[in-house]
Fold these 3 entries.
Entry 1:
Amino acid sequence: MTNQLLALLKLDLIMTGTHTIQPIECPYIITDNWHDAMTKAYTITRRTSHRKQWINALVYAFYMGKLIESSVTPREKWMEFVQRKSINNKRFIYMKATRTYQLFKTDLEQIYRTQHMTLKKIARLNNRDFKELLEFKESYEEDFVI
């Protein structure tokens, strides 16, 4: 990851704007069981990602990550899901979803203001760069959000 790209991703985390945001609906309903909800979230995340609808893919990955993180044993629950669905690239997809959730869990609407952020870029961050990005976001929130 280049320093320039990391700087652009940091900028995405603090980008502001006054334009109206048309929220994207959560792909599952609260009464769905975990497996059904994850199937819906995974399917639409994959579809929007293949269609290069980056904002939609980020939002749906956020909801996937939220489901994963809401589990008592997130990694085990995810592994159970991928084995039932025969999903390839399970580690990469897990990182996309959980990292997206971690980055935007305090402000989902920030996803709509991003310009450079994609699932692929999030997943390809090495652990050090991701930690730096997350710490940057947390520091910004502490310093500037009322």
Entry 2:
Amino acid sequence: MPATTTTDLATLRAAVLAEHYQKTMELVIHHWERRSRQFVTLVAVLAGAALVAFARPLIAPALKEVFLKYVPLKDANLTRLDALTPVAGDLILAFLVVTVFYLTANLVNRTSIITNYYVYLQRIEPELRKALEISPSQVVFSREGDFYRAVGAYNSRLIGRSYKAILGLLLLFFFAARLFFDFPQDLPPLQIPNRELALEWVAKCFLFAIDVVIFVATARLFARFVSPLTPAMPEVEAS
């Protein structure tokens, strides 16, 4: 078996680096496509959920009508149904609020992955250029580094800020509507030993409490989305 020469190893290393670079770029494109779909889904859910916020008084009667259409009840059970449909409507709204948080978390996570991949590509380009003995005057394998900073950085920042502004306004409108319409009204004096009054407090306050918790969590996620922080990495010399 012939001995492997230094030239063969250098050629093999350059080929492996180029293939790794290409596969990493394909992963970035994959995550870009997934994030674009997630963004559209989140905007659609926010728009629908915001409209539902204004139609909250109509949810319980609509649920009652649909239920009675498929499950006929006796008059004795109608009173219980009247008591349960508002709770069911509140659960639907709570599910929408949690869904918004879930979609926002996925969007932020996907953005973080894309950002990390781009930083990684910028880091390995000098190594790849050195392995392929590319001169500084050539632009090949500088797409995510020097070439991007010279040509595409401004447009990318402009588009990114537009996306963030649109999403931020929709989230603000959605949670403002939710907190306004879900704020508990006509709460009775709380008497802990009184079980019925305690349950009435829970029924009137639980949706507002969920709104507050999800709003705080979503606001933190959105702040992370607006200004993604890339971990500091020590400068390494390309070898």
Entry 3:
Amino acid sequence: MSDWFDAEQRIERAQRFFESRRWSEALAELEAALEINPDQAAWHANRGTVLDQLARHHEAIEAYRRALELEPDDPEVLSCLGIDLARTGQYEEALAVFERLAHVDPDCEPAFCHRIAIYGRMGDHERAEEMFYMAQQISDECPHAFAHMGESLFDRGEYARAIYCWTRALKLDPQYPLAKQRIAEAYRRQGDLESARQYYLAQFRDDPGNVNLICDFGDLLVQMRDLEGATAKYRLAAELDPRCVRAHSMIGQIAMRQGRIAEAVRALEAAAGVDERYVGVRVALGEALLAQGRCVEARHYLQKALEQDPNDAAALSAIGECLLKLHCPEEAHTYLERLAALRPDQADAHCRLGLCLLQLNRIEEAVARLERARAMNPASLTAIRGLLVASARAERWAETRRLIDRALALDPDQPELRRLRRLLPACRIRQFCRRLLAALSVPTP
């Protein structure tokens, strides 16, 4: 009899711990009580609830299953079990549980509402919509039903209808979690960036410590070309979570775009220190180090990036430039040839390969690549300058003069080209003298 009394006492203490959100202590008391009396369905269900609060969802599922063995038709426990099965990706089992719940209680709106979300995640949007209308017949004031339907519509690209659903969810529950953020994302997909900004701002006011939200807001500001505003958001995210690799990475990439190379390197090194495998970090850091002249370090990160993704065009381009600066044109050629094959319609890819071929003194191949680049982009100064070098090496002075004039027409502020144009007559004289001496030379008997 004392054991049973002890079990009840532990349940009372568990309840107090539960109310004060001391989940671990509540769990310990519940488990001690269940060791004494394991046949209490409500205690197993409460244990499942506490395990959910501790994010131990697989264990919670087992607790709910045990509760249902003792009381098979408890609607609340069925609902909790279905939610956890869906949360852990066990969609077919979750659907079976909610169907069972609907059979137990045909007027239970959550039995249909939760199936909207599950069918949406499975990509069966027709069934999701069917569940939505069935849920509406029971209650048309459930914000969850509208929110889940919004997700399904968003996944189908029906952004206007998704916005309507999330707006309805907000009318029913003005504090509905992340609804404003999802509306912002839908407006962003529609290209209505100002409306998206307003909803991101509203969500930020409600949840100022949400690091992912802050980074999403920063991404929108980048899209709106407000780089200063975006940088401020990413810095806030990095302050709130110093291990937010996304924030450090974006701070670095914006700094690179603005020509603040040293700051870019610092931010990207911070990102790499958290997770250098995060998308784009190795390439961006390699490019920043290359811009700083630290070619050996840049090469290390770019090679790592290409191990991760051998077809990363940005990494191929940067490592080609890096190897040329390190006087390794043969190795650079391997990467740049791959880049040109990967991006046959991009002038820059052919241009870079052409410059590499110039360093290898493969003049005709270089000219072919550079001409191809110029045909794609007639305003490419890099291609014109490469062709200029090739024509000068071949002492084709008329072509050299024409290319100089073309380059200066595109960008008059090039003093080295103006100086070269002034030197062209002297080049022609030296060429004439060499030919004259060759013609007048007499073989030695």
